Automatic annotation (TrEMBL):
InterPro entries reported for this sequence: Amino_oxidase (IPR002937), FAD/NAD-bd_sf (IPR036188), Protoporphyrinogen_oxidase (IPR004572), Zeta_carotene_desat/Oxidored (IPR050464)
UniProt entry tagged with the keyword Ribosomal protein: no
Chief site of localization: cytoplasm
Role according to the record: Involved in coproporphyrin-dependent heme b biosynthesis. Catalyzes the oxidation of coproporphyrinogen III to coproporphyrin III.
SUPFAM superfamilies hit by this protein: FAD-linked reductases, C-terminal domain (SSF54373), FAD/NAD(P)-binding domain (SSF51905)
Cofactor list: FAD
EC number of the protein: 1.3.3.15
Lineage: Bacteria, Pseudomonadati, Bacteroidota, Cytophagia, Cytophagales
Listed GO MF terms: oxygen-dependent protoporphyrinogen oxidase activity
Protein name per the record: Coproporphyrinogen III oxidase
Domain Amine oxidase: start-end pairs: 10-438
């Protein structure tokens, strides 16, 4: 048994790690010199920047991986204030209530919205609908205000998405199941012990690149700077990969693992599986930019006592929101400064994402000045741009998932985030499952 892993992001690295641990032969191919995909940490001018995910949720599978890599001692906890989350409403930031009881007693939502929350307990379940969007589901169960000021900023800030387009059963299937099982989402959460509690949020000393470096150093058959240019299949059903250089043209693989973005897998699949390639080509990746902005602490009047602030679309903001990076991890900026990571773009802000970097930086500074009471110019700014950022689990993803399932029967396993789920914990979990499946089949 031999496996070709195409793509050296967190999915491909995790798959290779567990295959190697199980004694399964593999080759991991990555087009760029650096592995890690979206997990990228940069040090610039005294700042520590995460250009992809800024922090991670500590799932069981991710904890196991860190343990296997001897990285648990490198876990960096967030500051205590990170439990606070803020939402823009009526032009200023409000702390979001942390629980349903707190929500009912706070002034963040109107009386009408609170009554809608209570009425959710008695609203009957609707028949399952595979086409229902997150916006449609939450509006039906909880009302429009919850959609506008809770769901919308969350989906925009975390998934770069639009809740009116993302499908419920592809993004939060557990919520759909709670409605069908208990008749009410809130009643279902109560009977099942809630949402399981908020997972620990963490980073690693030196940034999340530490995880990438540890995985990379562990792997014995990684091949960076080796873009795969073609994929063929012989009469025996085994695959061969063509690369720009390297002695791989005569190597046969029993399984090909696609740890690539959907759009990158399309040209490789098209000659052999044109229908699957067409489905993957339709997966939507909106553009996104991260704009890093530093100020003197004394020039920012807001206390910055939280994880960050998200912006509902109804407020007509420029950016989707900002993470208060130096509040969460104080070592990311000099002690007398504050560092914001502001997200521009995504499905709801595509026009802003297409602007030039200097225009984005100026607009972000203007918005930060307005909402945080900042009277000075930035000490420093930097922009990082993803032309295709996070895959959207909208109507187009359904055909892509069907295609991925059909490819499995042909010896091709899709393990990238468009199949596994967009979060790093999702990718680690799914890659480990695929590694176990391959290992079991080789036994």
């Amino acid at each position: 048994m031999k496996v070709a892993i195409l793509g050296g992001g967190i999915s491909g690295l995790t798959l290779a790690f567990y295959l190697q641990k199980a004694g399964i032969a593999y080759d991991l191919f990555e087009a760029s010199e650096a592995l890690g995909g979206n997990l990228r940490t940069e040090r610039r001018d005294g700042y520590l920047l995460e250009t992809g995910p800024n922090s991670l949720q500590l799932s069981d599978e991710l904890r196991d991986l860190l343990t296997d890599l001897h990285l648990t001692s490198e876990i960096q906890d967030t500051a205590a204030v990170s439990a606070n989350r803020y939402i823009l409403r009526d032009g200023r930031y409000h702390r979001l209530p942390a629980s349903p009881p707190a929500l009912l007693t706070s002034g963040f939502f109107s009386l009408k919205a609170k009554l809608n929350l209570l009425r959710e307990l008695t609203r009957p379940a609707a028949p399952p609908n595979a086409q229902e969007t997150l916006g449609g589901f939450f509006r039906r169960r909880f009302g429009s205000e919850i959609v506008d000021y809770a769901l919308n900023p969350f989906i925009s800030g975390i998934y770069a998405g639009d809740p009116e387009k993302l499908l419920l059963h592809k993004t939060f299937p557990k919520l759909a199941a709670l409605e069908q099982t208990h008749g009410s989402v809130l009643r279902g959460l109560a009977k099942s012990g809630g949402a399981g509690g908020r997972r620990k949020i963490f980073s690693l000393r030196g940034g999340l690149q530490t995880l990438v470096v540890a995985l990379t150093n562990h792997l014995t058959h990684r091949h960076p700077s080796q873009p795969v240019t073609g994929l063929t299949r012989d009469a025996a059903g085994k695959y061969q990969v063509q690369t720009v250089r390297g002695p791989f043209s005569d190597t046969s693989y029993d399984i090909v693992a696609l740890a690539l973005p959907a759009y990158a897998a399309v040209p490789l699949l098209k000659p052999l599986f044109p229908e699957a390639a067409a489905a993957l080509a339709a997966v939507n990746y909106p553009p996104m930019a991260a704009v890093f902005t530093a100020y003197r602490r004394a020039d920012v009047t807001h206390p910055l006592d939280g994880f960050g602030a998200l912006h509902p679309k109804v407020e007509q903001p420029y950016a989707a929101g900002s993470i208060w990076t130096s509040s969460i991890f104080p070592d990311r900026a000099p002690a007398d400064q504050v560092l914001f990571t502001t997200f521009v773009g995504g499905s709801q802000y595509a026009a802003q994402a297409g602007q030039l970097a200097d225009e984005q930086k100026a607009a972000v500074h203007t918005e930060l000045s307005r909402f945080y009471g900042i009277k000075s110019d930035p000490l420093w700014q930097h922009q990082y741009y993803w032309p295709r950022a996070i895959p959207q689990f909208d109507a187009n993803i359904v055909a892509a998932h069907v295609a991925a399932d059909s490819l499995t029967a042909q010896g091709i396993e899709a393990v990238a985030n468009w199949r596994a789920g967009v979060g790093v914990p999702d990718c680690v979990r799914y890659a480990r499952q695929v590694a176990e499946k391959i290992t079991d089949s080789a036994a």
